[in-house]
Amino acid sequence: MVKIALLGFGVVGSGTAEVLTENKKIIEERLGCAYEIKYILDLREFPDSPFGSLVVHDFNTILNDPEVTVVAEMMGGSHPAYDFTKACLMAGKNVVTSNKEVVSTFGVELCALAREHGVRYLFEASVGGGIPVIRPMINDLSSNKVAKISGILNGTTNYILTEMRDKGTPFSDVLKEAQRLGYAEANPSADVDGIDAARKIVILAALASGKLADPKTIPTEGITAISLTDTHVAAAFGFSMKLIGHAALTDGKLTAFVSPRMVPAVNPLSRIDGVFNGILVNANMVGEVMFYGPGAGKLPTASAVVADIIDIIANRDADPKPILWEAATDSDMADFAGYVCRRMWILKSGAEIPAALAFDDMKVVDDTVALLGAPCDEATAASIAKVLGESLLSVYRVLD
Amino acid sequence: MVKIALLGFGVVGSGTAEVLTENKKIIEERLGCAYEIKYILDLREFPDSPFGSLVVHDFNTILNDPEVTVVAEMMGGSHPAYDFTKACLMAGKNVVTSNKEVVSTFGVELCALAREHGVRYLFEASVGGGIPVIRPMINDLSSNKVAKISGILNGTTNYILTEMRDKGTPFSDVLKEAQRLGYAEANPSADVDGIDAARKIVILAALASGKLADPKTIPTEGITAISLTDTHVAAAFGFSMKLIGHAALTDGKLTAFVSPRMVPAVNPLSRIDGVFNGILVNANMVGEVMFYGPGAGKLPTASAVVADIIDIIANRDADPKPILWEAATDSDMADFAGYVCRRMWILKSGAEIPAALAFDDMKVVDDTVALLGAPCDEATAASIAKVLGESLLSVYRVLD
Questions:
Q1: CB–CB of B173/B165 below 8 Å?
Q2: Which of B30, B139, B292 sits opposite A290 (nearest CB)?
């Protein structure tokens, strides 16, 4: 009998209890092994929950119980989630988590600690919610060198951009509606400023490169400045505006950043709408594969947490296969100034177009002039933007 | 040092040699273990290939060499592929394969043999080419009950249907072009008659249910009868015509069949075009996830074969986790007459519409009357078709 403790009984925590209970019979059959939830750590009481009697308030009850061998951390935030995770690993307990903030910030240390103590630290639910992507990248793309990852990694912003496109409602109004529907937090910054997507893209990039970049230092741009004119320009060219987490490995150097991008219709990410996520991976042997599904939500995210718990129980007698990451140093990172892509330039009507701005297509949309630029690097783009000055309303990277 | 033998040096076999060689350094690093290809079994000689010196013609050379612990079968066809697989498993060798014919026909016996002899039989490459789908279904959806699978499982027919839709070229002409391009075999029956898709959907259905249905007995309809009028009707309703392998588990009963279906635009399968495959899985906790990528091709398929080889080497010291299937009996299968879906009825212009044909929408397309019918079961659909007689040009299931 494997004894499990859940840290946190919020949305994902209560979903995890539900998945472990609802599908208990089929999971135990697959495992050939029984399990039970022994404790749920939360500050609150849940007298009306069927799991209410399992709630404890003192983390040490869990830490000091040698029967508990699997701990699922679903508290969110860095502290005390990181501290509790560290203590569990050091006590020889396996930990699974949905906490992208902890994985992206402390992943190097926590993976090393797991290795040192002969246990596992798994985090399938930290990226893409219920979408299987982390384990498939480790196991199924193991025969490949991953060259590029582009993902719609945040359901809230994708919902907002989809509504802006389909209903012509401006950003601020859609955000309010998303908050009303519970798709966006009262403080929406982590979503709309791209912070959540940055955490997720550094995790995916680390799976491809072994180097975990600091999510706070990668170029990160959110969606707050996107106007309806910008989405109209995208539509006029047959593109969709999406917030993309992007990672690439070129000559051993890692590029990772988050920004809104105009996605041409031929790219399967262009058609991933609403709260869904999609992660497109380019690898040297398989070519292009995509993982698609619900990027958030109670039961989908819990489904991934429980898949990690099952993985640990199923392999409890095998040597744990460690995930080995190093912290990315400056010399591991490509110079972002050299990042090359096509760009969409949106200028005030009548603006003078500098000679350096080579473009392939031009359309007039909502009293602006939209130019689909030829590929250029960030440094060139910045100098063109400087020349354009106030004539430039906005410029977007195109995802090719 | 793990010694690997390849059975078959055709498209997938030579691709597998290439992946194992090209990515050797990174794979060995991940494994912490060296490997080499010791033999390649083929009837032909390959004097100009860098792997030519590894070619042997006698299967017994491989079977009787105790150094060979992993065998990759990529011969295609049932015999001798099945016989060689069986002999290898019985000799205590792990086997991986891309051969859907063998897995779908002999999977129950071969999985049981692997278990009996303490080795593994893996077949990620048998469905969806390079797309990670089998291992993710086993590992990542392990926390779920899978309720429904709908897949575009055959790249050749998807290429043909895409060309028919986008270029307005009739089936027979596109088929010839596909044969010229190497996308279709000289004898295209396995693809265009849905046989290949039937093999793949029974494998996916077995992963969900534990019951392997006989691919020869499930209802299977190909794409040879699809006319341009049919694709025009699909387009007029905003649908795409796709060859869909479908499996569902309802009250413990399995439904599995292959047929062309009209796929509404909201379904992500509607936008999977050309030679790409997509597999949409509905499961009770995660909801809907999709796996997308190249469903065939030398290196993509080899990428999956090598992922299985890596899985075996990485877990060589662990207890093999057996896949346990039973042969599906009649009582495991749902009565297909009870299968309910919407249908698109395409009638000769001026045909009398029977009262039993309830429909939600009607359009006139290419001198036909196309009716988007309300949901009805197969038995009802058959009796309506009988009443319509020669007025009925065609009828398609809609994928909702």
A1: no
A2: B292
Task: Judge contact between B114 and B320, C-beta under 8 A.
Answer: yes
Confidence grade of residue B343 (pLDDT, cut at 50, 70, 90): very high
**C-alpha distances in angstroms, A56 versus A44, A46, A51, A77?**
9, 10, 11, 20
Structure tokens at A306: 């429980």
Which residues, in sequence order, are CB contacts of A274 under 8 Å at separation 6+?
Answer: A155, A158, A159, A162
Nearest in space to B150 (alpha carbons), one of B9, B270, B24, B323:
B270
pTM, two decimal places? 0.96
Alpha-helical segments (H) within A59-194: 59-63, 81-90, 100-116, 134-139, 155-167, 171-181, 189-192
pLDDT band at A44 (very low <50, low <70, confident <90, very high): very high
CA separation for the pair B198, B219 (Å, rounded):
8
- Cis check for the bond before B80: say yes or no (omega within 30 of 0): yes
Q: Decide if B74 contacts B8 (C-beta within 8 A).
A: yes
Question: Hey, which residues of B are catalytic here?
Answer: 200
- The tokens for A159 are 């919902």
Which band of pLDDT confidence, cut at 50, 70 and 90, is reported for residue A182?
A: confident
pLDDT digits (tens, 9 = 90+) for A59-111: 999 999 999 999 999 999 999 999 999 999 999 999 999 999 999 999 999 99
SS3 B92: coil
Q: Which residue has tokens 């709630």? A: A55
Sign (positive/negative) of CA torsion A88, A90, A92, A96? positive
Residue A301: which H helix or E strand, with range?
Answer: helix A298-314
C-beta atoms of B19 and A143 within 8 A? yes
At A347, the pLDDT band (50, 70, 90 cuts) reads very high
CB distance A360 to A373 below 8 Å: yes
Count of A–B CB contacts within 8 Å?
176
Residue A298 appears among annotated catalytic residues: no
For chain A, what is the mean pLDDT?
97
CA separation for the pair A212, A102 (Å, rounded):
12
Alpha-carbon dihedral sign for residues B222, B275, B190, B184: positive
> What would the two tokens of residue B221 be?
């309809």
Q: Which domains does chain A have, with CATH numbers?
A: 2-129+298-325 (3.40.50.720), 134-295 (3.30.360.10), 336-398 (3.30.70)
List all residues of chain A from 124 to 143 with a beta carbon under 8 Å from chain B: 124, 130-132, 135-136, 139-143
Kindly report the nearest CA distance between residue B36 and chain A, in angstroms. 14
Alpha-helix runs per DSSP H in B10-119: 11-22, 24-31, 59-63, 81-90, 100-116
The interface predicted TM-score of the complex, written ipTM, equals 0.94
The residue annotated as part of the active site, out of A200, A211, A242, A298, is A200
Give dist(CA B41, CA B96) in Å, integer. 15
